[in-house]
Amino acid sequence: MTTFANKTQTAPKPGRSLITKLNMGTGLVVGIVSAEVMYWLSKSWFDINEAAEINKILTLSMFAWCIGFLVGIGAFIGPFRWLIGKDLTAEEHLYMAGEGQGISRYFKYCTDHKVVGIQYLVGVMTMLGVGGAMAMMIRTNLIQPGSRLVTPEIYNSLVGLHGITMIIALIVVSTGPFGNFILPIMIGARDMAFPRLNALSWWLLFTAIITLCSAWFFGGIPTGWTAYAPLSVQAGPGMNAFIVAIIIFAISSAIAGANITTTVVTMRAKGMNLTRIPIFVIGATISVAMAIPAFPTFMASQIMAAFDRTIGTGFYDANVGGSGWLYAHLFWIMGHPEVYVILIPGVAVLLEIAPVFVRKPLFSVNSAILGFAGIAGLSFLVWAHHMYISGWSPSLNGPFMVTTEMISIPTGLIFLVLLGTLWRGKPWLKLPMLGVYAFIWNFLIGGVTGIYLSDVPADDYLHGSMFVTAHFHYTLMGAALTGAIAGLAFWFPKMTGRMLHERAGYISFWMVQIGFNLIFLGMFAAGSQGQPRRVADYAQTFATSDLISTIGAYLTGTGMLVLLWAVIHSWRNGKIAPTNPWGSKTLEWTVPYPIPLENFHETPVVTSDGYGYGRSN
Amino acid sequence: MITSDSLPPSIGDRTRKFIKRHDVRMSFLYGSFFTLLFIFLGLSFYPKFMPKIMSEQMQNGKEVIVYFTVISAPIAGLVLGIALYTFLNRHKGDTPPPDGPAIRTNTPVILVWTVVSSLFCLVAIVWGLVEMNVASSEAAENEPNAIVVEVTGSQWVWNFNYPEYGFSTDKLNLPIDRPVVFRITSVDVNHSFWPVQLGVKVDANRYAVTTARTTPNVLGVIDIKCAELCGLYHAYMESEGEIMTAANFNSWVKAEGGHTA
Description:
The complex is a heterodimer. By secondary structure, chain A is mostly helical. Chain A has helices spanning 3-6, 24-45, 51-73, 77-83, 90-97, 113-141, 152-172, 177-181, 183-186, 195-213, 231-234, 238-266, 279-310, 324-358, 365-379, 397-406, 408-422, 431-454, 456-462, 466-496, 502-529, 543-573. Chain B has 2 domains: 13-88, no CATH class; 146-255, Cupredoxins -  blue copper proteins (Immunoglobulin-like), CATH 2.60.40. The mean pLDDT of chain B is 90. Classes of the chains: A mainly alpha, B alpha+beta.
């Protein structure tokens, strides 16, 4: 296998294999044709004038699109060969890795983990752009009471689509691009454990996103991203897109999770024992490992919702013995681990960055691991704090309050690790390092307000208000997304071979962070004043708080556009990056750009962890 | 021969040396500033944002935020103090800075930190449990002479039924200082019943009855909102009410067509 890397960079010629003919274009064609065929077929089976029948038609068509797309892009060629007792030839294998195919490999079913990483990066940035644009529309509609720029119907759809788009984007924002591109190199692996599954996880996500976007044409998702039943059962045909997208996304994340976990467990370079694994690798692994048990409950909840909507079951219909609380439980059993699935890799990126720029070892790696593990373990025992006021069992509020507040202890350890690393250091305030400081400020606010909300008497007042919205944006955007952007600035030279435009990066950083704090400090105020969340309109009392939020939103949005410009400009014309611009000691900085197909010419041997900075004192 | 130089420095010496260090003093200074800032914000800034406090539940909710802010202020101050000092003490230039001291771990610091954050967590837990316990035992005591209001949410209006007086209406007027028990249900999707100034909130679920208890103790207008997205006009699912004297309440009941005892 090592010989691959030494070959000249010309595309291999696998002869007249079908694989060479397939790409995203054929996938789109086959996918759309499949959906159309399924639509016409099911239209003849079901009556299009009845709501439940429309749901059947659309659900079937959307699944047909997903399967058709994967067939069209060639995802099933390998499994099909196995079915008839053959496998891909060596040339076909090499072709699928995309070596020497230039830009076109990014539009193929490519098994190279670096290509998948870039696909995730571009996909995530697109989703953040779309979700951000919807956030701008939401804030514009809330600029003053009674502005009514959009109808309540469109507003509710914006809220739902913004929510679910951003949640999906943030779940993969660190583990997708960096977990696929950087993580295998960090541990000295030549690729992921299952390269074809790696490609499958990305293209499944792609079909899920397209499905989700189709919701716009069917009346949107008027339920918020939580899609509570029975509201979701009552909702129009756009809801089918949400259901199908979540089912596909759950499969995608399970595949990605199994892949990353297996890679880290089995494919580390010689000498990289458990104490020498970089902290980002540990964080990303814990995150995707949490996703494996968490997302199936989300999938199950949506399958039941689909049955309620199409064939008239009553899982969530109290009239026939079902319960809306069942949905809430299934949703939040996924939902609370899920916020830490988002948070942990973002924090782990920052813990990876801090030692490099402070030139000190990461303080107490064991505390960091214990912190992540503690958060991960506890996060499966706290879900019903989202249901304090739902009335399902007030007597259980106490126990759930106890487990929830206990999360502050492992979270505190993460702060200690960062502070210990900063202590007595003279940090080099490059863009990635600024993210560490932004995280400390934002996550402190997000964390402390989380303790307020975990307390039942305070939650009785604040639940379902803008205060909650502000709290989780501080943790998800202020901490996790900040970590991911810092990670992009940090690894940009390795992923693209060029340096990120520094000045534009700084301008964007300050605009985004100041704007972000304006939005959500304003929203804390609005929530305290008593403004419910997800409202299209509000009373005069909240006018000032909401105006501040909207101004902050424009500042953040503009800052994000500056970052987008910086990324595109630097990717095309940026300064050529040296192999190790930050002087980091982890393995990914030892490989040249362009990174050879199997990363290392010689398999690295690890003799110490990646944090051996510092003079003895 | 043993001289004083060859002995390891005593704890007192080390402490004196530690608190004389510039970075320690400056971090402490910045930390104190942030601590005071957060205490100030918690005590005098935050309460200004709360609407009128018209029940003990609302008072409890406010106190949690105010006192948790005050308790967590020193921890937040410590974190931000150290962070701000290092931020200002940054390395300038285009090459990586020289290496700092290789501090890999410090067991006493980790232990103290863990114990302190656990204590903070314990205070928060005990505080919450005691408050919940007091509230529920008070509610049980008050149950016999409470006024019952049956609240029904439907897309997108609230309906209030007063079984004791035999009428229903879309306004939630209540007599002052008399315990009230809300029995809440929904005829369609989930709603969340939120009489804002009373500081309680419970979901309205279809075919299920949930309960909330409070005792309004201040006269004035209350806003009733829906706190759970319930479809198209969720934002407009609002109602009004008033906490009034017993005499005013009785005449309102009569005007609404109810019968007083």
